[in-house]
Amino acid sequence: MQKKIDIHVHTNLYKKERANRPGSTTITPEEFKMVFDKLGIGKAVNLPGLSPEYPSQLQFNDEACRIVQKYPDMFYWFCNINPKLVENKPDIDFSDYISFYKKLGAKGVGEITANVHFDEPLIQNLFMNCEKYGMPVLFHIGPQIGGCYGLVDDPGLPRLEKSLAKFPKLKFIGHSQPFWSEISSDLPVEKRNFYPKGKVTPGRIVDLLRKYPNLYGDMSAYSGYNAVSRDPEFAYSFIEEFQDRLFYGTDINDPQHITMEMCKLSAWLDEAYSKGNISRKAYEKVSYGNALDLLES
């Protein structure tokens, strides 16, 4: 069976210590070889980071491109575009930048982590330009302005819904705690940026996936794994229903992550399939099929 494709990793050509994370280092492509073997991954999408709100993983597009050029059998890449680029105006034409990176092999734009509201004009302009060039966007939702990173939305994700409706041809790939915690409707506001436990009562993520075919789910990090592992019986039906729009992922950006919860999704999917809880078709789509459609089409 084909190996999984990881929709969300962060790697650097050279190992670097992180200024604001004592004891933490970036993970190199060479170190990823061990991770791939352990988790059954064949290839991954490297996501560069440009946002000053997340300084521990800064990476420019040229390095992300060089990684793919050096390790073409291991990685794809997305480019990243700061919405304030050029003149910090909401009507800037990003065509030159997006077309340039697309010609260099970028498969999308992300991870978008700018700490502004989801419907901020600068971000809406970026979405418009991405839709124009058929470049999917992978975004991180943050809980508030200040003290975090990620596009900010309110409980119930109304700003995301506005964007889904406004840009119907743009593929939005959602990620983070405030995104996946909305899988259940009984979410306390104070738990939005954490990892809620217990049975799932289908919530806004389910509603939005049903209503908007341009919304996709990045199941990486503990937020994605928690969303399915907290209530397996619900998760099996969730994966079957939305098998065309879910992506396997890890969000690994440090060698230490191999021992953490974010890396348990691979085994969880394997077990769900082997025990007959999800179909072979759904398992293959989530593990690699949807990623191939996105990245190789």
Approximate helicity band: 25-40%
CATH class: Alpha Beta
CATH level-two architecture: Alpha-Beta Barrel
CATH homology group: Metal-dependent hydrolases
Q: So how many helices?
A: 11
- Which term fits the overall shape? globular
Distance between the termini: 21 Å
By CATH, the topology is TIM Barrel
Strand content: 5-15%
**Secondary-structure-derived class:** alpha/beta
Profile the largest sheet: 6 strands, parallel
Number of domains: 1
- What is the total tally of β strands? 11
User: SSE order in H/E notation?
Assistant: EEEHEHEHEHEEHEHHEHHEHH
The mean pLDDT is 95
Tell me what you see in this structure.
With 297 residues, this protein is of the alpha/beta class. It has a single domain, classed as Metal-dependent hydrolases (TIM Barrel), CATH 3.20.20.140. The chain is built from eleven helices and eleven strands. The protein has helices spanning 29-39, 61-70, 95-103, 121-132, 158-166, 177-180, 204-211, 221-229, 232-241, 265-274, 280-296; strands at 4-9, 17-18, 21-25, 41-46, 75-77, 109-112, 137-142, 151-152, 172-175, 215-218, 246-247. The strands form three sheets. Strands 6, 7, 8, 9, 10 and 11 form a six-stranded parallel sheet that branches. Strands 1-4-5 form a three-stranded parallel sheet. It has a two-stranded antiparallel ribbon with strand order 2-3. The radius of gyration is 18 Å and the shape is globular.
